[in-house]
Design a protein that fits this description.
Layout: H1 26-39, H2 54-62, E1 69-74, E2 77-82, E3 85-89, E4 123-125, H3 136-141, E5 149-153, H4 157-161, E6 168-171, E7 176-179, E8 182-187, E9 207-212, E10 215-219, H5 227-237, E11 242-246, H6 253-256, H7 263-272, E12 278-281, H8 296-306, E13 314-315, E14 322-324
Parallel strand pairs: 3-4, 4-5, 5-6, 10-11, 11-12, 12-13
Antiparallel strand pairs: 1-2, 1-14, 2-3, 7-8, 8-9, 9-10
Length: 331
């Protein structure tokens, strides 16, 4: 393997050098699994201002047709308009995040839009193959799949070709795809992949940089935190006008610190990449871990303020909310 990048292995892929790597004891791990089997399908008390209804979501999207815009669909799913293209990121819009219906974690708030309500999608980018990011139910319901370009990490393309999508592009970390002036680059992430009992880390995981119309955005995908990894991303691909950063699914740290950033780490990785504005994601939709589902926002805002971000530069969007995107003012 000496002629391959460091993150390539004989059987698949691994995280960047120096990434946190935890091996919790069996008791800690199985107690956590037991808690999730009991708790992840329980109803949650959802704040009334957490989500918009579909009519308001559609109206908000249509009101910003003239330029770059971003809608949070819930969890890590976003609808993005950039350089005249409509882009869908990690669309988990189904009811459950797992392989076994009736046992998998169940979403406790509806998505901003259903697959049938989405506008025609030009580009679909999926960061990795976990069920809360690659949702088979959502993909099966997407209209106009034949005209959509898929952007996915290495070895994940065959899954989508079988579903009748159009062009499928697989990218390694730091590789770029260009389409009508829009540039999409796969970025390193600290995570893992697995969809069955037999394919752990056989496909790559990634984030994405998306550049067009004078804007440079970062969508981190799922990731843990290591300063060297994100400083290198910032050096090679930043600075970013907006960074979509994970703030949820972080407890217990004995298990999750090697896979998911907590709210403070979400802010730190955005800062390390040179992100001028942070957009919180990966929270408030489905219960995957131990922390209270509405704990992350307060911690995120406090950490952003402590790191020097102005209130208007630390976004907590409502599910279904659309906001205009603007390049950072040049000095």
């Amino acid at each position: 393997m000496t002629d391959k990048p460091w993150h390539h292995t004989a059987r698949g892929f691994r995280n960047p050098p120096g990434s946190p790597h935890l091996k919790p004891d069996a008791g800690t791990y199985w107690r956590f699994i037991g808690r999730m089997l009991r708790q992840s399908r329980q109803p949650q008390v959802v704040p009334p201002d957490h989500a918009l209804g579909p009519d308001a979501a559609l109206a908000g999207w249509q009101a910003l047709q003239s330029g770059p815009a971003l809608m949070w669909l819930g969890h890590a799913a976003f609808l993005l308009r950039l350089d005249g293209r409509t882009i869908l990121l990690d669309p988990f819009l189904g009811d459950e995040a797992g392989p076994v219906r009736g046992l998998s974690p169940k979403r406790f708030v509806a998505p901003g839009l259903t697959p049938e309500q989405l506008p025609p999608i030009d580009i679909l980018a999926i960061s990795h193959n976990h069920y809360d990011h690659l949702c088979a139910d959502t993909l099966a319901r997407l209209p106009n799949r034949g005209r959509t370009t898929l952007i996915v990490p290495l070895r994940l393309g065959s899954y989508f070709r079988k579903l009748g999508f159009g062009q499928v592009v697989e990218l390694d970390w730091h590789e770029r795809h260009e389409q009508h002036g829009l540039r999409i680059t796969a970025l390193p992430a600290i995570h893992w992949s697995k969809r069955t009992a037999f394919d752990a880390n056989r496909t790559l995981w990634a984030g994405f940089a998306l550049a067009g119309e004078g804007l440079n955005l970062c969508f981190t995908g799922d990731t843990a935190y290591h300063p060297a990894v994100f400083r290198e991303i910032g050096r090679r691909h930043g600075p970013f006008d907006h960074a979509l950063v994970p703030i949820g699914a972080y407890e217990p740290r004995a298990i999750m610190a090697g896979h998911h950033a907590n709210p403070e780490e979400g802010v730190m990785l955005g800062r390390d990449m040179g992100a001028r504005r942070l957009v919180a994601m990966h929270w408030g939709t489905v219960m995957l871990t131990d922390e209270p589902p509405f704990e992350p926002p307060g911690r995120f805002l406090a950490a952003a303020a402590a790191s020097g971000y102005a209130p208007e530069d630390a976004w907590l969007m409502r599910i279904g909310e659309t906001r205009a995107l603007k390049p950072w003012p040049q000095n």
